[in-house]
Write a structure and sequence with these properties.
By secondary structure, the protein is an alpha/beta fold. It folds into 2 domains: about 5-40 and about 275-365, Aspartate Aminotransferase, domain 1 (Alpha-Beta Complex), CATH 3.90.1150.10; about 60-270, Aspartate Aminotransferase, domain 2. Helix content is about 40%, strand content about 15%. It contains 13 helices and 12 strands. The chain has helices at about 5-10, 15-20, 40-55, 65-75, 90-105, 120-125, 145-150, 175-185, 240-255, 260-270, 275-290, 315-325, 350-365, and strands at about 30, 85-90, 110-115, 130-135, 155-160, 190-195, 215-220, 235-240, 305, 330, 330, 345. The strands form 3 sheets. The chain has a 7-stranded mixed β-sheet, sandwiched between helices. Strand 5 (about 155-160), helix 8 (about 175-185) and strand 6 form a beta-alpha-beta unit. The longest helix has 18 residues, at about 275-290. It is globular.
Length: about 375
């Protein structure tokens, strides 16, 4: 009676449903979480603590502190990304919401590759837009014909996430150039969610940004993955000045401003090299892929910290429930896709947990 039509159209996250089921399992092998298993490096924590003690605990400007905005612009332009301005946001989640608020009209369509991060669909729906998905199975690559087929005269945005959650795939130069070309030909805006960009394992040819090839692009990133600052909720969006200015105005009425101390710590973090931490994840990727490849139909992830195998029988929902009965916790692929043939496994876990998980998964074939 009291609820809006907006919330009535949203179903609870499938991830939460599985978490509820997992609560009944005592000490499961947890390969579900989408956050690094390492803590924020001590030097970054100490930087934040120092600014707390200095009293930097008040509201900040709605767009973020100027020194961090300026440093981020240099950081992104130094990587070849086309951007005129940048805004600090409460995570990439907040950045995407602001971007949609200032670019999306009711009925507008946003084209998204399937599989996709679940949040994309519902943020678009909540704002009266229409998410339109195009299939990337079985190898999770971007193909031009399905992308073009998904476009209509209501299409406004193409949203790309690379490295991809949930598949772990990283799009090639040819794929990114194709998306940029299609967007340019159809006068479309591109959103590029690059939050996992540091987690790439196959060489420089996969360390590319869509913003390097597309001038009308919003690049979304943050500090949650590279530096494990998940709870500090700090992201950014970079792109054309007109859009960023509008997002700053919108942020005044949506979030007001973002975490003050996190911004000062982020200034320090941009100079902190996490290569050694990322190398550990490459070894974990190899461990789980080699442990599953002879039993499952599975693509080797090139980035992020997820692997997305196809399950026997093609029912990932039932497979996850059976895995829980065997003390293994992961997420069904149907949470991220119109199909339910796969499961998402996170290798952001201890090596011992991965070994146990692999053992259980091998017994389930």
């Amino acid at each position: 009676m009291w609820l809006s039509k907006r919330i009535q159209s949203v179903r609870p996250s499938g991830v939460r449903k599985i978490f509820d089921l997992a609560r009944a399992v005592k000490n499961p092998v947890d390969l579900s979480l989408g956050e690094p298993d390492f803590d924020i490096p001590d030097e970054i924590k100490e930087e934040g603590i120092a600014w707390i003690r200095k009293g930097f605990n008040k509201y900040t400007p709605s767009g973020g502190i100027p020194e961090l905005r300026e440093k981020l612009l240099r950081y992104l332009r130094g990587r070849g990304i086309s951007c005129e301005d940048v805004i600090l946001t409460p995570g990439v989640t907040g950045g995407l919401l602001l971007a949609l608020l200032v670019t999306l009209n009711p009925g507008d369509e946003i084209v998204i590759p399937d599989p996709y991060f679940v949040l994309y669909e519902y943020q678009v729906l909540l704002l009266g837009g229409k998410p339109v998905f195009f299939d990337t199975y079985p190898d999770f690559t971007l193909k031009e014909e399905p992308l073009r087929t998904a476009l209509t005269d209501r299409t406004r945005v193409i949203l790309i996430n690379s490295p991809n959650n949930p598949t772990g795939n990283v799009y090639s130069r040819q794929e990114l150039e194709m998306v940029a070309r299609v967007a340019r030909e159809n006068n479309l805006l591109v959103f590029s969610d690059d939050i996992y960009h540091a987690f790439t394992y196959e060489g420089d040819e996969y360390r590319l940004y869509l913003g390097q090839f597309c001038e009308h692009c919003l690049t979304l990133g943050g500090f949650s993955k590279d530096w494990a600052m998940t709870g500090w909720r700090l992201g950014y969006v970079a792109g054309p000045k007109e859009i960023i200015d509008s997002m700053v105005t919108m942020q005044q009425y949506v979030f007001s401003s973002v975490n003050s101390v996190a911004q000062k710590a982020a200034l320090f973090a941009l100079d902190y090299d996490t290569t050694a931490l990322i190398d550990v994840y490459r070894k974990k990727r190899d461990l789980i892929y080699n442990g599953l490849k002879d039993k499952y139909n599975v693509a080797k992830p090139k980035g992020a910290y997820y692997i997305f195998p196809e399950v026997p029988g093609g029912d990932g929902d039932a497979f996850v429930e059976e895995a829980l009965r065997r003390n293994l916790f992961m997420i069904p692929g149907s949470v991220f896709s119109s199909k339910k043939s796969h499961v998402r496994i996170s290798f952001a876990a201890s090596e011992s947990a991965l070994v146990k998980g692999i053992e259980i998964l091998r017994t389930m074939v």
